[in-house]
Design brief:
binds manganese (II) ion; about 325 residues; single chain; D-Maltodextrin-Binding Protein, domain 2; binds 2,5-anhydro-1,6-di-O-phosphono-D-glucitol; alpha+beta; 5-stranded mixed sheet
Length: about 325
């Protein structure tokens, strides 16, 4: 069987890219390289002093783990050196990072990134991930500005995630389907292992932090009860699976079928997850694989973005399951008025 590396695949597929073919290829290649370095550190996190918290809190008010900092630094360094990116927005940085170096003088892309997703799982040997989203800049020249990031998810030219799990995988889309690559540690390359990934239309897994049940909107509570009901025809009750690393939960659901929900709660009335560098890229991938992503009402990628770290609720997964959950949201929103 022919082994196709990520690098080879990107070059072969670049004819499909709408514009700036070589540049986008190089950008994806740079992300792949940074991912390999982060994977190496994730793999040895149990061995070295990198394990544990730095004691600092990030701008979201959450504890920052050392690996978050490391991953953030690696991706920023790779993107700065690559020369295709004129600004980076990261979960770990309050403001955008404009890139103003010689190699990036003609850079046409901006990247939004969650360098380490699932950070509460670092210390316990459970999968974590990286999420990235690529846009063409809207400003004309110079280092990128915040304007370049305030684009709807529909404007993404590429998006992907890396999962650092029992094996490392990089999954990405440029709007022509989704392809997944598994890192072969013996040759140090991501190799095409999941070509043209398609999500089942429906599944039997629901993923939600039920600890927040009391604080969920009524529609979500009723949908959870629906998932737990006995019904042979629809394979219910469904199984509950929640890792706490969104990338890992959504990756599993993409492969075997399921729905992931992070709703608004009375404690986080705008939701917890971030639109720019978590929800939009995951929505792009899931839609490209045949699934759906909404905030319970509106398609995620159609949502207007007003600030870098904007939060949203997220219903993402198999199209039938997301639609069903939205039916409940709709029904019980009406009843509330
Ligand atoms: P991050 O580690 O980047 O802050 O993201 C974690 C996200 C998501 O990946 C995960 O599903 C969810 O937050 C877990 O949140 P709860 O612990 O509130 O369930
Ligand atoms: Mn995250
Ligand atoms: Mn993160």
């Amino acid at each position: 069987m022919r082994v196709q590396t990520l690098g080879q695949f990107i070059i072969e597929k670049q004819a499909d890219f709408p514009y700036a073919k070589g540049e986008l290829s190089r950008l994806l290649r740079d992300i792949g390289i940074a991912a390999k370095i982060v994977n190496r550190e994730v793999n040895k996190a149990g061995l070295v002093e990198i394990l544990g918290e730095t004691g600092e809190t990030n701008i979201q008010g959450e504890k920052v783990k050392k690996l978050d900092v490391f991953a953030n630094e690696q991706f920023i360094a790779a993107l700065k050196a690559g020369g295709e990116c004129c600004a980076i927005a990261s979960e770990e940085n309050e403001d955008i990072i404009p890139i103003d170096n010689e190699v990036s003088a003609n850079a046409r892309y901006v990247i939004a990134i969650d360098p380490l997703d699932g950070s509460s799982n670092i210390d316990v040997n459970v999968s974590v991930g990286t999420i990235f989203s690529i846009y063409r800049r809207t400003t004309l020249n110079g280092p990128g500005t915040i304007e370049d990031f305030l684009q709807r998810g529909t404007e993404q030219v590429a998006a992907g995630y890396v999962i650092y799990g029992s094996s490392a995988m990089l999954v990405y889309t440029t709007g022509k389907g989704v392809n997944g690559f598994t890192l072969d540690p013996s040759i140090g390359e991501f190799c095409l292992s999941h070509p043209e990934m398609k999500m089942p239309e429906t599944g039997v897994i629901y993923s939600i932090n039920e600890g927040n049940y009391l604080h969920f909107p009524e529609g979500v509570k009723k949908y959870i009860k629906y998932c737990q009901e006995e019904d042979l025809a629809t394979n219910r009750p469904y199984s509950s699976r929640y890792i706490g690393s969104g990338v890992a939960d959504i990756h599993r659901n993409l492969i075997v079928g399921g729905v992931y929900i992070y709703p608004t709660t009375t404690k986080s009335p705008k939701g917890k997850l971030r639109l720019l560098y978590e929800c939009n890229p995951l929505a792009f991938i899931v839609e490209q694989a045949g699934g759906k992503a909404t905030d319970g009402k509106t398609r995620i990628m159609d949502k207007e973005i007003k600030e870098l770290h904007q939060r949203t609720s997220l219903f993402i997964g198999c199209s039938d399951m997301v639609e069903k959950a939205m039916e409940f949201m709709h029904l019980y929103a009406e009843k509330a008025v």
